[in-house]
Amino acid sequence: MVNLDSLESKPNFMRKISLFAFTVVLGVFLLSFGSSKATKDRPEERLGWKLGAQAYTFRLFSFAEALDKLDSCNLGYVEAFPGQTIGAGSTEKMGYQLSPEGRRLVKKLLKEKGVTLHAFGVVGAKDAEEWEKVFAFAKDMGIKVLTVEPSDAHLDIVSGLCDKYQIKAALHNHPEPSKYWNPGVVLKSLEGRSKRMGAAADVGHWMRSGLDPVACLKQLEGHIVHLHFKDLNEFGNKNAHDVHWGTGKLPLQAVIDELKRQKFKGMLSAEYEYNWKNSKEDVRLSAINFRKLIK
Xylose isomerase-like TIM barrel domain: from which residue to which, for each copy (predicted)? Predict the structure, then answer.
């Protein structure tokens, strides 16, 4: 360690060099300490996984309130959804229609909570002009992934905008009979299109459709850019409801192992669609269970 008292006896330029060295060493130490703490609290980050929540989990609340709940669950990423009231004094809704003032407020709220707005969806559009507005909004807000369910006629539009704005679009699988419920349909839709297009794998909805989530992940290998994460009390039942991760029918450890094998990098959005008014604790305990298995 640098002895600061001894610097007075050194020439001016030597004192500057010594102080610079001390500052660098101190900075490296603090950075290392912060990084190790983050890795300990969020072990998924070592794998390149961004554990967060789909704000729809807290759809009965404002976006500002949803951020408070995410923060209390030790989640650093959020997937916003269209139509949620911003809150914090604003009655505007989340989406490309947000005014410049509304966008600044959202960015301010995110910065205050230390939460990253990584994804947005599930979003659609009626035509090419509206899709352009969605992508321009995502670019302005720093969003990396749009979760989408476009019609066949819009797939090429979305593909072109992915490359124009350098934003990923992930095809999301609502349960059967929705368009993308089966991984085979997703793969067919991705053929010949932008490399920035991929799958938003919803493991819970696969279970509702009677599909093995691990087998579906294997089928989509190389194309998964985003996940909606949930565990359910029943398999093959469209009316199954969410339970704490690791306590339901999802083969959680097998899913984690498969994502590791594929070297998946990206966000896992907790989407807890049950106990709507008081789900924060459910999400917090689910994240704890998930992180225990990773460790």
Answer: 86-281
- Per the prediction, the chain carries an average pLDDT of 91
* Nearest-angstrom CA–CA distance, 189 and 29: 48
Cα distances (angstroms) measured from residue 81 to each of 5, 58, 124, 165, 256: 57, 10, 11, 20, 25
HEC string of 226-287 equals EEEECEECCCCCCCCCEECCCCCCCCHHHHHHHHHHCCCCEEEEECCCCCHHHCHHHHHHHH
CB 79 within 8 A of CB 118: yes
CB < 8 Å & 24+ apart, contacts of 278-282:
279/57, 279/58, 280/58, 280/69, 280/72, 280/73, 282/242, 282/244
Cα torsion at 98, 283, 179, 176 (round to 10°)?
A: -150
- Those residues whose C-beta lies under 8 Å from the C-beta of residue 111, and which sit 6 or more positions away, are none
67 burial type by CB count under 10 A (0-12 exposed, 13-18 middle, 19+ buried)? buried
- State pLDDT tens for residues 185-227: 999 999 999 999 999 999 999 999 999 999 999 999 999 999 9
Cα 190 to Cα 244: distance, rounded to the nearest angstrom: 33
Residues 267, 50: contact at Cβ < 8 Å? yes
Output DSSP code: residue 5. G
> How far apart are the two ends of the chain, measured CA to CA in Å?
34
**Rounded alpha-carbon distances, angstroms, from residue 90 to 22, 103, 116, 230:** 46, 11, 20, 31
Closest Cα to residue 295, out of 38, 35, 40, 72? 40
pTM, full prediction: 0.86
